[in-house]
Amino acid sequence: MKPSARFTSILVFVLTFAAVAVAQSDAGVATALASAQPGYVDKASVSLNPSQSTPLQAVTSATILNFPANADSSRAIFAAGNSSSSNGPSTSGASDSVAPKHASQDNSGDGHRRPDVPTIDGLDTLATFSGAFMTQAGPSLGKVFPFIMMGNHPLAGGTTTIPAQITTVSLNLLNADGSLNVNVPFVFRDLFEDSPNFAQTNYRSGRNIQYADAIHRAQFFNVMGDDWHTVLDPSFVNSVTFTIPRFVNVRFPDGSVKAIQAYQVGTAPDGNHFVLMLDLLFNSLFDNQVISDINAGNFTTDALSMTLFPNTFLFSINAQGQESSCCVLGFHTFFNDPTAVPQPRWVTLFASWISPGLFGAGFEDVTALSHETSESFANPFVSNATASWQFPGEPPTAKVCQANLEEGDPIEVLPNATIPITLRERKEVFVYHPQIIPLLQWFEMGKKSNAIDGAFSFPDETTLPHSALPCPQ
Question: What is the phi/psi pair of residue 78, to 5°?
Answer without folding.
Answer: -85, -10
